[in-house]
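Below sits the subject:
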Amino acid sequence: MEYSFKNIRVGEIVEGTVIQVNTNEILLDLNYVLEGTIYLNEFTNEKVNSFEDVVKIGDNVTALVKKIDEERGQVLLSRIGIIRDENYKVIKDLFKNETTVEAKVESQVNKGLILKYLGFEMFLHESQVDLEKVNLADFVGKTLTVIISEMDDKKQKIKVSRKKLLIEEQKKQRKIEFENLNVDDIIKGTVKETKPYGAIIKLGHNQAILPIGEVSHHRIKKVEDEIKAGDEIEVKLIEKSVKNGRNRISVSRKATLPTPFQAYVKEFGKGSTIKGKVINKLPFGIILELAKGVTGLLHNTEISWNPNDNFAASVVFGDEVEVHIINVNEKQEKISLSKKYLEDNPWGKLTARRGDVVTGIISELQVGKGFTVSVQGVDAFLPADEITEEKIGKLDDVYSIGEEIEAKIIELYKDSWKMKLSVKEVQNARQRAEFDKYIKTQETRTVTLGDLFKDVLEKKK
C-alpha cells in the first residue's frame, strides 16, 4: 500500500473512514502512515454520552488536523472548527432568507440578552425584546423565536430581533381582528393613554379613538376625571373605516353606560319620594334637578291642593323641594312629580254640603270684610253682611278669635277651596221656627154673635 504524506498538515481538512469506535474516541483511516484520532469533545458541540450513539465503523468523517504526534503515532483531529464554519454558513443562509430561529436565552447582559444557537452567541438588544418595556431577567432560560437582523463576518458577531417578528405578527392579527370588527359591536378594551381630545383604547392588536364627548353622558373637562391609563373598559364600536391605508376605529363608552335617566329611575322609580333643586320656572310648572343630568317636571296642578297657593313665587333657583314621583316615561325620559301628593287635602275629607248648618271656630279677623272660620279642618269665609240683620259697628266687638259659632253653608266649591257661611240665615231660620212653633201651639176657636152679646142678654133678664 502506498501512502502520501505531503497533503496532511496541521490546519488542513482531511477525510477518513472510521475503523474503530470507542466511548470517548474514534480512529480514522486517513490513507496515511498514522491513523487519525478524534475525541468526543472535539467531535460535536452537542451533548453526547458516547461515540457509539453517533457514528459506526465505515462512516466517512471530515475533520481538521490539529496536531501530528509522530511519537505517539497519531494524528489528532477535530471537527469543532468545521462544525462552527458549517453552522455559521447555516446562520448566514438564515439571515439572507430572513428565516426565524429558535434560540435559548443563556444570560442577561448590559442592555440586552445573550442567546445561543448552533454554538454561536447572538445578542438581543433590550429594545428588540418586546413591543413594550419588559423585565429582561424574566426571559433567562426561555427559548425565544427571533430573526437575525445583523451579522459581522469578520468578528462573527450576530444580532437578532424579536420585536420585528412581534410587529409582523401584530400586523397579521390586527388585520384579522379589524376585518372581524363590526359597527355596534360591544367590546372590551384597555385605556392606553388619555389625550385632551379623548383617549386611545387598545382593542387586542388594534387601537381605537374614544372622543371626549363619548366618554360619559355628562359633560367633562378632563378625560382623567372618568378613566385612566390601564383601566379596562367596555365600549361600543361606532365607526370603522380605512383612510390613506390606515385603519380607523372610533368607539363610545357612554353608549354602553345607562343614561343618567336610566340609572336614576332604576334606583328611584314611580312611587319614590325624593328631593330636587329648582332650576327653572315655566308658565305651566317648575323644573327640578333630581340628579346630575336628570330633571323632572312639577306641574302647576301638582304643586298644591290649594288652588290659590302661589308656591312658584315663594321659591327661588337652587331651593330644594321634596316631591313624589307619580309617573316615569322611559321612552321619552320624562319624570312627572307631585308636591301635593305628600300633603294632606283637608277639602277631600270635607263631608259638609251646601245648606248644612255647621259649627265652626273663628280663626281670623278680616278687617272690614268678615271672619275666617275653621269648619271641619278647612277655612270658610263669614262675610260681615251675613252675621246679623242689625247694623254692626266693629267686627271685633261681635266675635273674638277662638269663639265657636253656628252658621249655614250658603256657597261651597271644593275644587277652588271656597266656602261661604251665614250666621244670620241660621238666626232667621231659628226665629221662623220659633214663630211657627208658637202659631201651632195657639188654640183656634170660632166666635158667634151669642158669644159676643152673652153678658148683655143675661143683664136684661
